[in-house]
Design brief:
about 25% helix, archaeoglobus fulgidus dsm 4304 fold, about 220 residues, 8-stranded mixed beta sheet, 5 helices, single chain, alpha+beta
């Protein structure tokens, strides 16, 4: 698929923060239009021994959730771990994997934050600007915001609020299991993000595209010499 050439990655920390504030103004929160026939998961892992970021993109059909395509990539680990700036560490490898796809997915589910971020530009929102496709952040943990626990039943969700703004939802994707922190990335609303997260979730906590992408990067890491 085609990737937008948005900006370079060799930035100082101050420049990266300033760029996030600038790019956040380009994020569009709008309903997902048109039929969704394919959904992709994007995830990454770190091989600190080799100084690499490993990434996987897995495309599934919808509604049957059958795998269509998998693309793998790796990139040099050049940016340090700084909370709030993780997309500058992870995105290059994720974009390299997505760029290998022959399919252009209708929606991406990304292991990370969307606008639930101090500068409203988490990994899913940042990647969405490059991919120019609807993106949803499905994070396993909270970065910012306050919330009430959702009811224990699958499908229950409560608002995630930061500085008086609802930036995401805490979504129970499996009954009695820890919720996910879902937020819109780009070309998606919060309602759409919650709906599609639940539609794409099967028997596990993670939505199926994200779960299979996580499985692929885990295997990549285990198989690396």
């Amino acid at each position: 698929m085609e990737i937008v050439d948005l900006h370079r990655w060799d930035l100082t920390y101050a420049d990266a923060r300033q760029l996030q504030e600038q790019l956040a103004g380009q994020v569009r929160l709008c309903p997902i239009h048109g039929a969704v026939h394919t959904a992709a998961g994007l995830d990454c892992a770190f091989d600190k021994t080799r100084g690499k970021v490993l990434a996987a993109a897995v495309v599934l059909s919808f509604p049957d959730l059958e795998p269509i395509e998998t693309a793998l990539a790796e990139a040099d680990l050049t940016f340090p771990y700084i909370p709030g700036l993780l997309s500058f560490r992870e995105a290059p490898a994720c974009l390299a994997a997505a760029g290998k796809l022959q399919t252009t997915p209708d929606v991406f589910l990304i292991d990370g934050q969307g606008i639930a971020h101090p500068r409203r530009l988490g990994l899913a929102a940042h990647l969405g600007l490059f991919l120019n496709r609807p993106t949803i952040g499905c994070a396993k943990s909270r970065l910012i915001g306050t919330y009430d626990q959702p009811a224990p039943q699958k499908g229950s969700h409560t608002p995630l609020v930061d500085a008086g703004q609802t930036v995401g939802a805490v979504v129970r994707t499996r009954t009695g299991v820890k919720p996910l922190f879902v937020s819109p990335g780009h070309l998606c609303t919060l309602d759409s993000a919650v709906q599609w997260t639940l539609r794409l979730t099967g028997r596990y906590r993670l939505p199926e595209p994200a779960r299979l992408a996580h499985h692929q990067v885990t295997m990549m890491k285990e198989l690396t010499p």
